[in-house]
Amino acid sequence: MGAEILGLIAVAVMGKDGYAFLKQRVVGLIRPYAPIKTVSRRRYIVGLVLFILPILFGWLSVYTAKFIPGFTNHPLLYAVGGDLMLLASLYVLGGDFWDKIRGLFIYDAKVHFSG
Fold this sequence. Notes:
Strand content: under 5%
Low-confidence stretches: none
Structural class: mainly alpha
Order of helices and strands: HHHH
Shape: extended
Largest sheet: none
Mean pLDDT: 83
Radius of gyration: 20 Å
Distance between the termini: 42 Å
Number of strands: 0
Oligomer: single chain
Number of helices: 4
Helix content: over 70%
């Protein structure tokens, strides 16, 4: 909600052309770092492992905290590490995975298997 309001204020102050120019420049700076659309099978498997490990660790750490070295003294380090691993996995998995995630939130989305 806040981003939309700030966007409207930016359009009002800069005008439509100025806002379009600024948006084009920002997207141009970010685009080289965007994940590629399609990745290899090996990269996809590595990305899935990176995606699943922090989720499983977060779930299991509640039950196994006393067995994990340093977890009870420094849980924030483990949490930040897991979050960074999860974010890195989204980059490794590529753009097609983003489409799969987006499909989870679209009621009418259908899966079409190829092959």
